[in-house]
Write a structure and sequence with these properties.
With about 475 residues, the chain is of the alpha/beta class. Among the domains are: about 50-185 and about 255-340, LCP protein (Aminopeptidase, 3-Layer(aba) Sandwich), CATH 3.40.630.190; about 345-440, Alpha-Beta Plaits. Helices cover about 35% and strands about 20% of the residues. The chain has ten helices and 22 strands. The protein has helices at about 5-50, 145-165, 175-185, 215-225, 235-255, 260-270, 280-290, 320-330, 375-380, 410-415, and strands spanning about 50-55, 70-80, 100-105, 115, 125, 140-145, 170-175, 190-195, 195-200, 205, 210-215, 275, 300-305, 305-310, 315-320, 345, 360-365, 390-395, 400-405, 425, 435-440, 475. The chain has an eight-stranded mixed β-sheet, sandwiched between helices. Strands 16-20-19-21-17-18 form a six-stranded mixed β-sheet, with helices on one face. A two-stranded antiparallel ribbon has the order 5-6. Helix 1 runs parallel beside helix 6, helix 3 (about 175-185) packs across helix 4 and helix 3 (about 175-185) runs antiparallel to helix 6 (about 260-270). The relative contact order is 0.11. Mean pLDDT is about 80; it is low at about 15-40, about 80-90 and about 340-350.
Amino acid sequence: MSEPTRRARAQRVQATRRPRRRRIVTVAVVFVVVAALVGGAAWWRLDGNISRLDISGALSSDRPTPVDADPTNILLIGSDTRAGQGTSDANSVSGARSDTTLVAHLSGDRKHVTVVSIPRDSMVPMPPGCDAKVPKQQWPLQQFNAAFSQGGPACLINTIEANTGIFINHFAVVDFNGFKGMVDALGGVPVCTPVAIDDPKAHLKLAAGRHTLNGTQALGYVRVRYTEGDGSDLGRIKRQQAFLSSIVQEATRTSLLLRPDRLYGFLDAATKSLTTDEDLGLGTMRDLATSVQSVGVKNVAFVTVPVEPYVNDANRVQWTSAAESLWKTIRTDQPINEPTKRPTPTASQAPLTVSPADVAGVVVVNATGVDGLAKQEADALLVQGFPLVTTDSTTDRTDGVLVQYTSGQEQAARTVAAAFPGAKTEKADGLGTTIRVVIGPGSKTVVELPNRLGTDPIPTPSVSPPSPQKAIEARTADQDICA
């Protein structure tokens, strides 16, 4: 074949290849554009599913100050009706009932998530008529779940923030009908019941053991109350927490995020059931979900506000002193399932080197809530030769006795701590020469010092400290569902 012939043939082949390459590139571009349009349409539809509610005008002007870090607190409300029904009127949810209330805390470093269940039967101070302009000192005790039915998410947020000191960043109301669709989109969720359940009100009948529930069964399971266990809301909360743990495990096990079809079905059901504040759109939800994607199920903890029977009605409950410790943990952005670092014990074997008369000042702080306890302990110190003892109180609850001092006052602190059996000591800033004694639940009353001054007997105690607080029990999302 001659050189001109080869050249002409090559040109014909090249001319044929160019349109083919162009067609391939064109098809690829069209595919990407179509995929983007479909994705955009899906995103638009999902975002459009969500009802939004403007509650800014109904929120209290005296709200807690958000912390400087980046923790996020989201109020989650399980309701028997979809709040708002597509409207933006904050009053459009009046009359709806909140069956379940959770506060989800996402830590600032996004290394842990804590989900707090608030018992619906709790008696707490609440604004009368949900009017947050009424001074908090005038708020009467009311049943907690009345807040949502009286004034919707705004009333509930005002009540929670006033009683916990926690700033609520967002809220989401989940309609129980949408909840069923979310479970079905997962292909069912495994549960474990130690006893048989037969609850006509919940339309649920299960034998004891493990089951995989569909959406309708799951809704009955999380709402069972009167025919299972002791019939209390606390028993139902435990089942709800176990169920939420199972959802987290199931979504992880089935790689939900890697199955677009199932993920879309899940998100479609979820968004159709949601009413949120105006700032909690799908984009914000995506950003929050992305920020915690590496948390891991072992760092997702479920905990219930510690309660005890309400003094005026055995069918209601009131928060115990341990509840403040829980809320403080959330406020300070600490993991609920990590042990708190304890102060070091006072060395009681070595002889005391500072006389009570040489201790410049002592302040006894009552952290028990029991009236008169700080004065009683202060009088017991004064009679032993301490020249200046004052009293104070705090709402923080820490078990036992903590003696705080600044650098250079270690020996004076040892003398003071020796008067309180089992006291712990801790360095603190800003006290000067004053020794601070914090008396908490489970503390012991003042005893006689070996180097005391004077001979007058220590006054007989007339007030006793309360028992130590019960430890806050947390369930992590990786626990076995039968645990």
